[in-house]
Amino acid sequence: MSKKLLEGVKVVELATFIAAAGAGRFMADCGADVIKIESAKGDPLRHTAPSEGRPLDMYENTTWDLENGNKRCISLNMKTPEGKEAFFKLLEDADVLITNWRIQALQRAGLDYETLKVRFPKLVYAIVTGYGEYGPDKDLPGFDFTAFFARGGYLDSLRQRGTVPFNVVPGVGDHNVAMNLAAGILAALYHAKLTGEGEKVETSLFETAVYNMGMMVQAANYEGIAQQYPINIREGANPFNSAWRTADDRFIQTCMPDYNMYYKQFMKALGREDLIDDERYFPIQNLQAKGLGTEMYDICMEAMSKKTAAEWQPILKEADVAFSLAQSWSEILEDEQAWANNCLYKMQYDNGNTRTLVRPPVKFQEMGVPEYKGGPLIGEQGPEILKDLGYTDEQIQEYQEKGILFVWKDDRK
User: Fold this and answer.
1) Catalytic residue chosen out of the listed positions 29, 112, 144, 174
2) Which of 3, 219, 291, 326 is the right S-S partner for 251, CB 3.0 to 4.6 Å?
């Protein structure tokens, strides 16, 4: 394996949960030395297993590994002068600081950008917020359920009219934010390496959702379907961009953004050659002018219901129509395409269990696929990190005794 792309880069991560940590994980996979700082209680993300239907186990914690693999960890009591000074020592030769602390907490602790840039002018300071740094709601707490899915337009728009919002799952918005933050960090890091000047990088759950929804947010400038959401999918502007129930009660999603370009081949695939030259349904201008979109939807749904998902797949491939079976998470674990592209990794845990874990989505040809080390225990590398900073064994022992440094005691027998 060639040299890792971020080898020699030092990242200090003062963050909890997912969005900020995901950016740190990506950088760690690229070879950066990512040092995560936790309190003695640990990141709350370590304790979310029951909400995900997993056993609460500090030694087999798949969510923790997903967001914090390949990092080192030190647990510092930042409320003590010694803990704060150790943190500053970490920053002295750091290239990047990643945090998701709320602005008021950063300011109270003297860790806001304006304060730190005086002492560390080369530092790239990266922060994740819920709603952005400005505006009336800048100080609100934010998770992806609220700031991303709800405020960002997903829950009210992407549901069938007359129904409750869809079920959201944790991490979806956070992972979007993580990769956006990573992109910003790398741009600022490039600038810092060239000029010696640091930079502040910020993104938020809300801003990311607005960007993701950009096409339809912009379309809402006009009197049209974007102003009419939530809709019944039968009343969509383009009936070909729908999910179809098959004979075996599965769903196949198709996507044909240009209805006119795909019309004849899709009708042929459905066995409805009789409609190929029917001017009621083609071109889309006729369909919409006559208000026959729901009728075409019903024609497609009726045709798709006659075959199983397995029977439809070769037919749609032959027609060169973009489609995909709506998969369950269990099916993704076994998806050959995911395995072929190194999306997944089998982790052997010390308890003998083997679990399939997910990797970050960006790959590099020359660097190769990174080794997957599980996320650290609370403060696991604390003593070695302090040694790297010049602390003596006696000082490290003293810090542990005084509660300045916490190291998880492995209680497995």
Assistant:
1) 174
2) 326
